[in-house]
Amino acid sequence: MGRKEPPEVFSITAAQRPLSEEQGGRTRRYLVSMGVRTLCLLGAIVIDGWPRIMLIIGAIALPYLAVVVANAGRENDEPGAVGTYQQDRPALPGSGSSIGGAEGARHA
After folding, report:
1. 9 near 85, Cβ under 8 Å?
2. C-alpha 36: how far from its chain's center?
3. Total-model pTM
4. Of 12, 44, 73, 93, which is least surrounded by CB within 10 A?
5. What share of the chain is helix, strand, coil (3-state, %, to 5)?
6. Considering Cα of 53, then 54, then 57, then 62, what sign does the dihedral take?
C-alpha cells in the first residue's frame, strides 16, 4: 500500500499571514523572552559566584532584545498559507423528487 500524496496547492497570492496570526506569534516570542528573564532574576537571587553576574546581565539585556524582536514588523514575515486546491467531494444525494413537480409534468 502506497501513501496517498497530499493534493497540490496552487498559490493564488503572495500575501503575508493574517495580521492577527502574525501578532500572536510576536506576542508568544515576547512572553517566552520575559519568562526567561524571570528565571534569570530568580536564579540571580539564589545562585552565588560568577553565574550570578551572567544571570543579572541576561535579566538586564532580555527586555531590550525582546522588544526589538517583537517589534521586528511584517517586512520580514513569510508568506501565508493562502492557496487553493481541488477537493474531491461526492455529489449531494438526490431526494428522488423535483421542485415544483416539473418531472411529473414531463411524464404525464
Report:
1. yes
2. 22
3. 0.52
4. 93
5. 55, 5, 40
6. negative
Q: Where are the alpha helices (DSSP H) in the chain?
A: 19-46, 50-70, 102-107
Euclidean distance between CA atoms 67 and 55, whole angstroms: 19
Cβ density class 53-79: b for 16+ within 10 Å, e for less: eebeebbeebeeebeeebeeeeeeeee
40 has pLDDT over 90: yes
Average pLDDT, the chain: 75
* DSSP code, position 100: G
pLDDT in tens, 91-103: 677 676 666 555 5
Q: What is the mean pLDDT of residues 46-75?
A: 86
Report which residue type is found at 83: G
